Amino acid sequence: MVDYYQIFENLPEEEKIAWETARRFVDDEIIPIIAEYFENYKFPIHLVKEMGELGLLGVNLPEEYGCPGLNNMAYGLVMMELERGDSGIRSFASVQSSLVMYPIFTFGSEEQKKKYLPKLAIGEMIGCFGLTEPDFGSDAGSIKTTAVDDGNHYILNGTKMWITNGSIADVAVVWAKLNGEIKGFIVEKGTPGFTTTEIKHKMSLRASVTSELHFEDCRIPKDNILPKTSGLKSALICLNQARYSIAWGSLGSAIASYEAALNYAKERIQFGKPIASFQLVQKKLVWMLTEITKAQLILAQLAKLKDAGKVKHTQISMAKMNNVSMALEIARVARDIHGANGITLDYVPIRHLLNMEAVNTYEGTYDIQTLIIGRDITGFQAFR
Ligand code: TGC
Ligand code: FAD
C-alpha cells in the first residue's frame, strides 16, 4: 500500500483487520474478474453475500443491528480498498451502507431498524436510494415526486433517475414531497405501482447497476415513512456519509492507477531503457504520489474529526471535491504512461478514468461541492 508519509502505520488492531479483510477480498475476488464484468456491463452480484459475511457493509453502524460497529477510519479504509478494485463495487457498498442503512438507522423507527438493518448488513437484502429525478439533479430541493396521505397508506407518484442498485434492490429509500415537505419513505420491491428500468449504454460505472425508478399510484403502508425525516436536510445528512465514503474510495482508485503506472514504467523499454528512467516520466509519477499523499492527509484528519463528532459537512465536501478530481487526473496521466496499451482493459487506468467521470458528477458535482465550500467561507450562496 502506498503510504509515503507513514500515515497509516500504527493503526489500532480493529482498523487494521477491517482494512486487511477488504484488501484480501479485493485482491482475491474483484481484481481477477472486474475487467470482464466492466466490459460485459455486469455487476458481480454473486459477491454481495460474501461482502456481508466479511463485515464490509454498514461498517460504522452498531453491532446491535447486526453491523460491524467500527469507527469511521475503518469505514474509510474499507471503501478505499473496494474502489481500488472498482468504483462499481464501492458504489454498491456505499449506497447500501451510507444511503440505505444509515437513513434507516438515523431516521427510522425501532421496528424499521430491526426489520431491515440485519438483513442489509449480511447482504441478504440490497438497497437503493432515490433522490435524483430526470429534471432535478444538483437542485435536489426541487424534486417533484409526491406522497399523498390516503388513510392507512401513502400514495407515491413520480420518477427517480440514475439510481445505483435500482433494479437489483429489495428495498428503496425514496425521497418525496408530502404536503410540500421532503420526507423519506421505504418502498419494497414488488409493491404494486413500483417498477424499475435499467439504464443502458453507460461508458462509466459499467460494473454497477444504474436504474430509473417509476412510481405510479404506488401505495405503501403508513409504517413505511421514515418518521424522523424532515425536509431536504435529512437527505443531505445521508449524502454526507456517502460523500465521505467517496472521498476515501477515490483515493483507492488513484492508488490503483498510480501503482499500475509505476510498475509499467519500470518494465516498459523505449530507447533502450525503462521509461521510468526518463525525467518526464518521473515527474508524472512524483506528481501522482504527492497528490495521493495530500489526499491521505486530508482523509486521516477527516476520519478523526468524524469520529470525534466534530466534522462539518463542508469539510466532507472539500475531501470529495479534491480527491475525486485528483483520482480523475491521476487516472488520465497513468493511462498516458501506458501508451497504446493504456486504452485497453488489460491495464486498469482506463477503467478508473472512465469510472471517475461519473464519480466526479454523482453525490454532488465538483462545481456543487465548490459552491458548498464557497458559501461556507463567504457567507453568500451562489447556487441560484
Ligand atoms: P440548502 O438551503 O443549502 O439546505 C437545506 C438545509 O439543509 C442544510 N444542509 C445540510 N445539512 C447537513 N448536511 C449537508 N451536506 C447540508 N447541506 C445543506 C442547510 O443548512 C439547510 O438547513 P436549514 O436548517 O437552514 O433548513 O438547500 P438548497 O436547496 O439550497 O441545496 C443546496 C445544495 C445544492 C448544496 C444541495 O441541493 C445539494 O447538495 N445538491 C447536490 C445533490 C446531490 O448531491 N445528489 C446526490 C444524489 S445521491 C447520489 O448521487 C448517489 S451516487 C452514490 C454511489 O453510487 O456511490
Ligand atoms: P445537473 O445538475 O444538470 O448539472 C449539470 C452541470 O451543471 C454540472 O456540471 C453541474 O456542476 C452544473 N451546475 C448545476 N447547477 C449549477 C450551479 N448552480 N452553478 C454552477 N454549476 C451548476 N442519484 C440518486 O439519487 N441516487 C443514486 O443512487 C445515484 N446514483 C448515480 C449513479 C451514477 C452512475 C450517476 C452518473 C449518477 C447517480 N445519481 C444518483 C445522480 C447524481 O447524484 C446526479 O447525476 C448529480 O447530482 C448531478 O445531477 P445532474 O446529473 O442532473 O446534473
CATH classification class of the largest domain: Mainly Alpha
Tally of separate helices: 11
Averaged pLDDT: 98
Number of domains: 3
Task: Characterise the protein shown here.
It is a single chain. The protein is of the alpha+beta class. It folds into 3 domains: 13-121, Acyl-CoA dehydrogenase/oxidase, N-terminal domain (Butyryl-Coa Dehydrogenase, subunit A, domain 1, Orthogonal Bundle), CATH 1.10.540.10; 127-224, Butyryl-CoA Dehydrogenase, subunit A, domain 2 (Beta Barrel); 232-378, Butyryl-CoA Dehydrogenase, subunit A, domain 3, CATH 1.20.140.10. It has helices spanning 13-30, 34-39, 48-53, 72-85, 87-107, 110-121, 232-267, 279-307, 313-337, 349-361, 366-378; strands at 127-130, 146-150, 153-164, 171-178, 181-188, 194-198, 210-221, 269-270, 273-274. The strands form 2 sheets. Strands 1, 2, 3, 4, 5, 6 and 7 form a 7-stranded mixed β-sheet that branches. A two-stranded antiparallel sheet has the order 8-9. Helix 7 packs antiparallel against helix 8, helix 7 (232-267) packs parallel to helix 9 (313-337) and helix 7 (232-267) packs antiparallel against helix 10 (349-361). The radius of gyration is 21 Å and the shape is globular. The mean pLDDT is 98. The chain binds 3-thiaglutaryl-CoA and flavin-adenine dinucleotide. Flavin-adenine dinucleotide binds next to strand 1, strand 3, helix 10 and helix 11. 3-thiaglutaryl-CoA binds at residues 91, 94-95, 129, 131-132, 138, 140-141, 164, 232-233, 236-237, 239-240, 242, 313, 362-364, 368, 372, 383.
